[in-house]
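Researcher: Sequence recovery benchmark, item below. Answer with residues only.
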């Protein structure tokens, strides 16, 4: 079966600028950056087999994203909506729950909770489980588990 030639891509000036920002932006997520970096290679007329090792992507991945870009342009580089369980809470409910955390304790009238606060229990304040019984056995001359810290 003959090999299918790679689809040619021509970019507009605005697409080229947006791709450059996506491909080399410091705040761009990794997946989007990888997809955006393969498009300039395709514009230069390189084959999928040559783009794959240069970008560090699998050949099938390069084919998939090149084909999707030809069909739908820049919008397709972002992730698609994923199926799954619908959200259990609305955006308004989430905002209501998060709002108190964004206020200062003085505004809400609640005392700040710190490690030194009398109402807070720090795990460092509690003795280790079994420490007292091991200590009492050691003082009484009884058997102490080997390797136990006193």
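Model:
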């Amino acid at each position: 079966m003959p090999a299918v030639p790679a689809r040619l891509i021509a970019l507009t000036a605005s697409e080229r600028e947006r791709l450059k920002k996506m491909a080399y932006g410091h705040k761009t997520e990794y997946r989007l950056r990888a997809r955006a970096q393969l498009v300039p290679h395709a514009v230069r007329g390189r084959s999928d087999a040559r783009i794959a090792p240069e970008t560090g992507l699998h050949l099938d991945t390069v084919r998939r994203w090149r084909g999707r870009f030809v069909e739908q342009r820049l919008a397709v580089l972002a992730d698609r909506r994923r199926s799954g369980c619908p959200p259990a809470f609305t955006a308004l409910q989430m905002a209501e729950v998060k709002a108190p955390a964004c206020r200062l304790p003085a505004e809400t009238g609640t005392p700040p909770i710190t490690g030194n606060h009398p109402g807070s229990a720090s795990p460092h304040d509690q003795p280790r489980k079994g420490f007292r019984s091991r200590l009492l056995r050691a003082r009484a001359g009884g058997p102490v588990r080997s390797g136990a810290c006193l």
